TrEMBL record:
This is IclR family transcriptional regulator. GO terms for biological process: negative regulation of DNA-templated transcription. PANTHER family: HELIX-TURN-HELIX TRANSCRIPTIONAL REGULATOR, ICLR FAMILY, TRANSCRIPTIONAL REGULATORY PROTEIN. The lineage of its organism: Bacteria, Pseudomonadati, Pseudomonadota, Betaproteobacteria, Burkholderiales. GO terms for molecular function: DNA binding; DNA-binding transcription factor activity. InterPro entries: GAF-like_dom_sf, HTH_MetabolicPath_Reg, Tscrpt_reg_IclR_C, Tscrpt_reg_IclR_N, WH-like_DNA-bd_sf, WH_DNA-bd_sf. Residues 1-21 are annotated as: Disordered. Residues 22-85 form the HTH iclR-type domain. It holds the Pfam family IclR_C.
Length: 273
């Protein structure tokens, strides 16, 4: 007499459970990244739904789980979600995760003093640009357009444009398309960003005559590794008259010089390691 194998359906059930579990983890990580974009001000539930493409019940359920775990917290005043206390504590385990930062710091400080305006260093992380350092200059008016830790989709801001310009067009377009939903939530046009990337590819700089704040301007140059790909981007923001047609070439020359020094130092440290 034949017998049906015991738990014949178990492997399929296990595979389905594993797939569902992986999807939940991926969705939770996506939410964490989107919440991180809000920094201290936080992000509204409706914006998280728009940026992730998930339905509202799913987003709300995942948020509540992350809140219980301390990974996310909700501001009781405005109900916005922001990164919770557990994430910074976990990050302490990898305090040297961005090795370019200590290597770049003296060059960023020197550049800020030479130019007189605010200097930023941003790195690529997946499909995002993250500001990892900021140095202020000596000029009376400093344009502090973003904070250290600001996370934006590549293509938003001149730093992301500069890093995208180091990629072949098909690769940069693919990243812009991957970020299209978030870019549109930020009231930007993905096709216009592709155009800006092409201009930066041709000129070697990403320049915004009108910066994030009225009356300001910004310019960025990529920090290219030995393979030609962007390790980071150096950005300077200033009141518009300080990045006019006469002064801009001088500022860009100083930025490119420091970018080259950073790459040389980075290569030396890699060789020692």
């Amino acid at each position: 007499m034949s017998r049906r194998p015991r738990d014949a359906g178990a492997p399929q059930d296990d595979d389905a459970n594993a797939s569902a579990g992986s999807q939940t983890v991926s969705r939770a990580m996506l939410l964490l990244r989107m919440v991180a974009c809000g920094q201290e001000r936080g992000v509204r539930l409706t914006d998280l739904v728009a940026m992730t493409g998930m339905n509202q019940p799913t987003v709300h359920r995942l948020l509540q789980t992350l809140v219980r775990e301390g990974a996310i917290e909700q501001n009781p005043a405005n109900r916005h979600y922001r990164i919770g206390p557990e994430i910074p504590v976990l990050a302490l385990a990898r305090s040297h995760r961005f090795p370019l930062m200590p290597q770049a710091e003296p060059y960023l400080t020197d550049l800020a003093q030479q130019v007189g305006d605010t200097v930023f260093l941003s790195v690529r992380h997946g499909t995002d640009s993250i500001c990892v350092a900021r140095k202020t200059g000596h000029y009376a008016i400093q344009v502090l357009s973003i904070e250290v830790g600001v996370r934006r989709p590549l293509g938003i801001g001149v730093s992301g444009i500069a890093m995208l310009s180091c990629m072949p067009p098909d690769q940069s377009d693919a990243l812009i398309n991957a970020n299209a939903r978030r870019i549109e939530v930020l009231k930007e046009n993905p096709h216009e960003i592709s155009r800006r990337v092409q201009v930066a590819r041709e000129t070697g700089i990403a320049h915004a005559p009108q910066g994030l704040m009225p009356g300001t301007s910004a310019v960025a140059v990529p920090v290219r590794g030995v393979d030609g790909q962007a390790l980071a981007a150096i950005t300077i923001t200033a009141i518009a008259e300080r990045l006019n047609e006469r002064r801009l070439p001088q500022v860009v020359a100083l930025m490119r010089e420091r970018a080259l020094w950073m790459v040389r130092r980075h290569a030396e440290m890699d060789h020692v390691a």
